[in-house]
Amino acid sequence: MLIIGAGRGGSSLLEMFLEDKLVEVIAIADSNIDAPGIKLAQSHGIPTYGSAVAALQACKNYPDCIVYNLSHDDSIAEEAARIFGNDKRVASGPEVKLFWQMVTNLKQIKGELEKSQSQLQAIINNVMDGIITINETGEINGFNPAAEQIFGYLQQDVFGKDVKMLMPEPDKSKHDDYINRYLYIGEGHILGVRRREVTAIRKNGDLFPMELATSEMMLGGQRYFIGIVRDITERKLAEQKIAHLAHFDYLTDLPNRALFLDNLEHSVSLAKRNSYKAAVLFLDLDGFKQVNDTLGHDGGDLLLQEVAKRLKGLIRASDTVARVGGDEFIFVLSNIGSRENTALMANKIIAALSEPFNIKGQRCHVGGSIGISMFPVDSPDSETLIKQADAAMYVAKQSGKNTCRFYRDTAK
């Protein structure tokens, strides 16, 4: 190609030809040595001419050379006919104007596409969610920076590798079957699901909870799958914390009243099914107010925490101890066997509480009054059992404290 005229049109044409490896621009000519096309050609080592005739003479040495005349000088065609013997190798006038408009439009479209692509790439690179693209065979074709941060791999580490490297068992083994079922019979349970929670694996081997949304796209006749992934570890921990706070006492970490009632219902149901006895023990600390007044509320809180540790260490895995308010604790003893076993356990609790506590460098002493109700002899109902144990506890306090009383004995 020879370009005559290095103004805006010639410069645009040269830019386009520079990107085409099938085209060689042998020269560009313009009487204005400061024309933008001249400077562009010089920056790429392309010969420049100040004379169109001299450029045409150079073009004569290339039998397949085509001349684009953007100089608006119609005499160029006549000069070309004289040099080449015809002017069929010269595009000029309306023909080259149309071509220049096409080039300009293409350049504009290309610029807009590049801008859109840059914007899209910027969005992909900066979104908080990981974006992973795979082909039909499961090979990873796209892995944005958020995905790199989530999984610990760089894009070059995973590109072209099977996406199963990001999956633990059993999902890893099932993945190929799932893809094949979808490709051949259209059966799938992941595509189109907005929020599906799965377990994924990081580069260091750590498993973590992940939210996954998967979609399908066709591009260039090829099918691809796009996964939008989000690490939900922090959310899961927050949910677990909220659930824990809803069922456990914030100070002692013992079950609260709501969880205790659930456990009691479960124990009563098992006792009914298996025809064995269960016991509810209601404990109120003796002397706690004096410690609280002496050491302050923070000292009282520390004492309650230490009491909770002792109580928890006394019971079996099948039993439950809960803090139900202030210095009150309640137990359910499953399959306790007999009244004597229950009394033995109650006295064991009282004995454990009688040992001194070291709170803020001071020895503290508390006791405990315990009321006891038995299933099924006192009541078959959970709520009633708690009320009976509570009533028996007040009798124990009135009887001198640091002792236990059965509801059946107090009700006579």
Overall, the morphology is: rod-shaped
Strand tally is 17
Unreliable stretches (pLDDT < 50, length at least 5) are: none
The number of helices is 14
Mean pLDDT: 87
Biggest sheet layout:
5 strands, parallel
Total domains, how many?
Answer: 3
Q: Mind telling me which CATH architecture of the largest domain this is?
A: 2-Layer Sandwich
Which class do the helix and strand fractions yield? alpha/beta
Q: How large a portion of the residues is in β-strands, by DSSP E?
A: 15-25%
Radius of gyration: 43 Å
The share of residues in helices is 40-55%
Q: How are the strands of the biggest sheet laid out side by side?
A: 3-2-1-4-5
Instruction: Quote the CATH topology of the largest domain.
Output: Alpha-Beta Plaits
